[in-house]
């Protein structure tokens, strides 16, 4: 097994995950099988209970793991299905070691960070690195390990020690470290000087911690000057060919191409002795085809002449990362429709009447964005805040024939809106939003644990069955002759099955249900260009080269090419 460690210095949030995923993608295009491990030094067992405004979205895997959004980035780039164990946190490691201590596995020894915690980290990485990839059953050739946070943080110290030991376990020629640093420009903008001192200090920090970077990836807003690259090389005792310049590009999908132009593959091949590594001819050809398609899509997105505007009506828009997978799914769909997408971020609260009186400028701006958009998307959320604004946006989409997609809570609110305004159930609501029981519970909580929060939702991949008599469905047509689909879920509340008859009589069709027919999975209105709600989260399965069909259909409807996209998909099927 060969390992590629990607660490970061100076500051966090400079694109470590994208660089790690891009390196993995490049290795995969040569016919190698690549897996990915993300280390998060926080104490939480997982990201499931974290506030999306503080930490960004929670990404969910097939097996119900709730984890950091960087796992989503790697999955989208590599097209690989990862598991909950591919995300390591301090909480998980300490829980495992403490469980071992309680069982007596350490035979009375004093349990310490070194060697017990550090050994547990190495054992975890090595075990996960050999887990077969997807349904193919192929054992990975290379494991990309992304170390979250910044080297020098107190939380990262045990992990730094562990991966430095892992380097020795792996052996010479089987371990490469890429250290990502930031090169600021002072003063900012054209004419400013590119400063290398932060990178010099960052490399000094990582070396003092026991690691010696093989490559340094320098992030900068603008292309690095040759003199800057040479200075970093000289001060960090590396050849200039091992200094990777990663400047801002039009989209993150250009980053692999940027690295490829700098011969990163050749450098990695030399360091890991990949020229002599056995590869399957079929995987080599598959890798070449994948790279050709990737480059075509990435370059094509730069030349798209038509822009489709999507109003994303949410409640966490202060941090765009809270909707990372959603926005990336829209980008994937846009590339495959040969269009560009403009996401207009609308704070759902600004659509509510209370804001009209308090801050009319915000109110009218929000409504202008909704009314002028080509399509309206209401994503998942929790809690009551902003939900009345979301419902108002849904009403607009339904009555004005604007393409609409509701995801998770967005789907539930679409059902509530229909119950109120079409079925005449004026007090229709959700137990989550009105827990006092005085409303008509269109959305309720079934059998999930109500006493805890972490890991208690309906999580992971579940099957959705298309219902008889829904062959007319625009959504269903995207899947050809398929009778069922499987998608990932993350929710506590669901549509009340007792009201399905009344809703369907009024024209809201439940196109998809779970295998028992008890959980409502997909809604659709027949006489509408595209009015679809899904209880699952299709964004978790969207890939650059294989966009989510849910988002592809929604975007294609907004772009006016739904029939063309549907025909193309059915040819492939």
Automatic annotation (TrEMBL):
It comes from the Eukaryota. One of its GO terms (molecular function) is identical protein binding. SUPFAM superfamilies: Class I glutamine amidotransferase-like (SSF52317), P-loop containing nucleoside triphosphate hydrolases (SSF52540). InterPro entries: Class_I_gatase-like, CTP_synthase, CTP_synthase_N, GATASE, GATase1_CTP_Synthase, P-loop_NTPase. It catalyses: UTP + L-glutamine + ATP + H2O = CTP + L-glutamate + ADP + phosphate + 2 H(+). The keyword Hydrolase does not apply. Belongs to the CTP synthase family. This is CTP synthase. It comes from Cephalotrichum gorgonifer.
